[in-house]
Amino acid sequence: MIDLHTHSDASDGSDSPEELVRKAAQAGISTLALTDHDTLAGLDEAEETARALGVNFIRGCELSTKAPIGEIHIVGLWTPRNLPELEEFLAEQRTNRQRRNAELLKKLNNLGLKIGWEDLPVNSGSVGRPHIARVLVEKGYCESIQDAFTNLLGKKGRAYVPHISPSPQAAIKILSAAGVTTVFAHPRLLGWQSPEISRLINELAPVGLDAIEAWHSSHNENDAKELLAIAQNFNLAVSGGSDYHGVMKPAITLGMGAAGKPVPDGALTSLTARRKAKGQPV
Ligand code: AMP
Ligand code: ZN
Ligand code: FE
Ligand code: FE
Fold first, then answer.
1. What is the pTM of this model?
2. Closest by alpha carbon to 73, among 81, 64, 82?
3. Strand residues in 14-152 grouped as ranges (E)
4. Ligand 4 centroid vs 248 CA: distance in angstroms?
5. 223-282, pLDDT tens digit by residue?
6. Å from CA of 52 to ligand 4 middle
7. What is the per-residue pLDDT across 40-72, written as a single tens digit (0 to 9) for each?
8. How far is CA 26 from the centre of its chain?
9. Which residue puts its alpha carbon closest to atom 14 of ligand 1?
10. Mutation pick for ligand 1 pocket among 61, 129, 219, 242 (CB with most ligand atoms within 8 Å)
11. Is there a contact between 21 and 246 (Cβ–Cβ < 8 Å)?
């Protein structure tokens, strides 16, 4: 089994990087990527644990971007170490997160909900809405994380604040220049249909998009099939991952791809073939 999209508590997952890798090894996952939002902070710990447990580890991250049709997530795989341009870009995204969180807290306070910075994790360089949702549940303001998103934090929620994000083109260019493999993450999660996905990929492929995440835990069999066809059409690789977040998203299991089935090993083969063809290390 493989899983090329997971989160730790370096961003909005609930497991430490070490715990995450231990659980993956126990689940029989042979290749794992850690792809925290806007940060590489969990990668060294995860990589060290993976080495000790004999798990093949891929360093990664996930970026939120804004296209004309809406929010698009880009997963980056094989992120290099010690590259100032990439670190600076990610630090800028984290600063934008904190600006957005300040607005979110203000809106929640205006609704009479008592929540402040002291309630949010300080060790995480990348604070997101799931952290805020968790506090709202702990304080008894919401019944579940899902409820917090539906009523307050999500797009139709009363305290919604959009991301301050770069365009997908900008994110792809910066990642590609750093030798990172770029993946259009969970294209179906946010509701896009195939024609609009194809139109967007038509703009992203020329700036360096490498792959589409066809096998994702939010996709059904038909989603995966259509996304595979789009990938083939644009000569892109195909990736797959669960988007595991621990207790933040309890329904998601490590290694789960589309339609509740494991991510096929072919995802890794497809991505490594593309990297080799570009002369990039795997
Ligand atoms: P943020 O990065 O702060 O915009 O938060 C995004 C995170 O919240 C991602 O992990 C999303 O998958 C998660 N998320 C978005 N909508 C929901 C929802 N309705 N229920 C649970 N998690 C959600
Ligand atoms: Zn997340
Ligand atoms: Fe995402
Ligand atoms: Fe994710």
1. 0.96
2. 64
3. 31-34, 56-67, 70-77
4. 11
5. 999 999 999 999 999 999 999 999 999 999 999 999 999 999 999 999 999 999 999 999
6. 25
7. 999 999 999 999 999 999 999 999 999 999 999
8. 22
9. 130
10. 129
11. no
Mean pLDDT of all residues in the chain?
Answer: 96
Return the ligand number nearest the Cα of 133.
1
Ion ligand 2, residues whose Cβ is below 5 A away: 7, 12
Pocket residues: Cβ below 6 A from ligand 1: 12, 37, 64, 128-130, 145-146, 149, 154, 163
- Beta pairing partners, 257: none
Beta bridge partners, 216, equal 241
For residue 239, give the H/E element and its range: strand 237-241
Of the two residues 122 and 153, the one the predictor is more confident about is 153
Distance CA(282)–CA(273), nearest Å, equals: 9
233, 202 Cβ separation under 8 angstroms: no
Give the closest residue (by CA) to ligand 1 atom 3: 128
Q: Tell me the two tokens of residue 251.
A: 């329904």
For ligand 2, the distance from its centroid to the CA atom of residue 10, given in whole angstroms, is: 10
Ion ligand 4: residues, Cβ under 5 Å: 62, 243
Which residues pair with residue 74 across a beta bridge?
A: 63, 184
